[in-house]
Amino acid sequence: MLRRTLAITRKEIIHILRDPRSLSIMFMMPVIQLILLGYTATTDVEHLSTAVLDQDQSVQSRELVDAYRASNYFDILFYVATEEELGRLIDGSEAKAGILIPAGYGRRLTADHEASIAFIIDGSLPSVATTAFSAAQTVAQAQSTALIERLYNIDVEAELGIAVRPRVWYNPDMKSANFMIPGLIAMILQVQSTLLTALSIAREKEEGTIEQLIVTPLRSMELIVGKVMPFVAVSLFNLLEVLFIGVVWFGVPVHGSVLLLLALGVLALLVSLGIGLLGSTVAHTQQEAIFLMFFLMLPFIFLSGFFFPVEAMPRVLQWISYLIPLRYLLVITRGIILKGAGITILWEQALALVLFAGAMLLLAASRFRKQL
Amino acid sequence: MTGRLFFVIYKEFIHIVRDPRTLAVMFLMPIMQLILLGYAMTTDVDHLPTVVLDQDLTSQSRALIEAYQASSYFDIIRHVSTEEELRRVIDKGAFRAGLIIPTGYGQNLENRQNPQVSFVIDGSDPTVARTAFAASQTIAQAHSLELAGQRIGLSLETLPGVAVHTRVWYNPEMKSVNFMIPGLLGLILQFMTTLFTAMAIVREREHGTIEQLMVTPITPLELILGKIVPYVAIAFFGLAEVLIIGVLWFGVPIHGSVTLLLAISTLFLLTTLGLGILISTVARTQQEAMYLSFFTLLPSIFLSGFLFPLEAMPRALQVISYVIPLRYMLSAATGIILKGVGLRVLAGEVFAIAVFGIVIFTLAARRFRKHLE
Question: What's the rounded Cα separation, in Å, for the pair A202 and B285?
Answer without folding.
Answer: 14
